[in-house]
């Protein structure tokens, strides 16, 4: 494990190495969410990460897992989730932040909102250290 500041990232391959891989981490994250298996996400998220969702603040893998799995139980397995309108608002050697529109669709409903994901370079790897999802402004 590598540690820098408050973020820690396992040495697994998905917390990517190389400078350009921060975009790959966000793409992999969005793609893996659709599998509704949180174990596929854990190597992309720093253990001390904090996620802000409309239902509250979730800090650490266990709390973030509970938030995801609770949501997946409510919406069911037919949900499709994707990100678009990416804007990399910070893009440095050790940290990057991306704003985007998140979209979701089920057979009976659909919607979208806005999100921000912050990634941090920990050693030679990129990990998600923060996510904030909120409704799209009226």
Number of helices, where a helix is a run of at least 4 consecutive DSSP H or I residues: 2
Order of helices and strands: EEHEEHEEEE
C-alpha Rg (nearest Å):
14 Å
Q: Measure the end-to-end span.
A: 43 Å
* Main sheet specs: 6 strands, mixed
CATH architecture label name:
Roll
What fraction, in percent, of the residue positions are helical? 10-25%
Label the overall shape.
globular
| Mean pLDDT across residues | 87
- The CATH class assignment is Alpha Beta
Strand order, largest beta sheet = 4-3-8-7-6-5
The number of domains is 1
Q: Per DSSP, what share of the residues sits in E-state strands of 2 or more residues?
A: over 45%
What class, by secondary structure content? alpha+beta
* Low-pLDDT runs: 1-8, 10-14
Reported by name, the CATH topology is Nuclear Transport Factor 2, Chain: A
Number of strands: 8
Structure write-up:
The chain has 138 residues and is of the alpha+beta class. The chain has one domain (2-135): Roll (Nuclear Transport Factor 2, Chain: A), CATH 3.10.450.50. The chain has two helices and eight strands. It has helices spanning 21-33, 61-75; strands at 2-4, 7-9, 45-53, 56-59, 80-91, 95-105, 110-122, 125-135. A hairpin with a 2-residue loop joins β7 (110-122) and β8. The model is unreliable at 1-8 and 10-14 (pLDDT under 50).
Strand-helix topology:
Layout lengths: L1 E3 L2 E3 L11 H13 L11 E9 L2 E4 L1 H15 L4 E12 L3 E11 L4 E13 L2 E11 L3
Parallel strand pairs: 3-8
Antiparallel strand pairs: 1-2, 3-4, 5-6, 6-7, 7-8
